[in-house]
Q: What sequence folds into this?
């Protein structure tokens, strides 16, 4: 795909990532979220936050307290987001399995993102399964971004071949 994409058509109850803002917006989320690794649920909550940014499926942030004891292990390294600041990482742990650097957090996020301080986002592709309101999510394409795709979010999504300039 080259150039600017044509947004997919939306139906009732669906939203387009092309209607999301840039810079991104943070909004509270009230609904069920689960994360499974090694056949076990390592996180479950009925609330969290979504970061919505043009061309990206939502990134869900889960309260750290929603993770089972021992499921979050601090990992080395950090990265920087132009919108949220410095991210630090977690390995996600369950049984004999470790998903390295599969979770991240902003300990001191920039202005406007303070509610997600200490909350954890998860790379869906690195765990067995993530759900939102009972629906299994698909991970954002490309292996770099952490958005979660559900049936009510339409693209095309940044991360597919040719989307670098979006």
A:
């Amino acid at each position: 795909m080259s150039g600017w994409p044509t947004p997919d058509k939306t139906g009732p109850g669906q939203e387009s990532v092309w209607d999301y803002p840039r810079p991104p917006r943070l909004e509270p989320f009230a609904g069920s979220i689960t994360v499974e690794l090694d056949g076990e649920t390592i996180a479950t909550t009925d609330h969290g936050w979504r970061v919505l940014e043009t061309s990206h499926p939502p990134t869900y942030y889960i309260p750290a307290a929603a993770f089972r004891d021992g499921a979050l292990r601090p990992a080395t390294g950090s990265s920087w987001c132009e919108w949220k600041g410095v991210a630090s990482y977690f390995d996600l742990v369950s049984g004999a399995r470790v998903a390295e650097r599969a979770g991240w957090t902003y300990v001191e996020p920039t202005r406007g993102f303070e509610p997600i301080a200490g909350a954890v986002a998860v790379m869906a592709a690195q765990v067995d399964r993530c759900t939102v309101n009972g629906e299994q999510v698909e991970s954002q394409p490309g292996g770099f971004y952490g958005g979660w795709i559900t049936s009510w979010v339409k693209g095309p999504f940044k991360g597919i071949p040719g989307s670098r300039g979006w």
Notes: The chain has one domain: 15-154. Residues 64 and 119 are 5 Å apart (CA to CA).
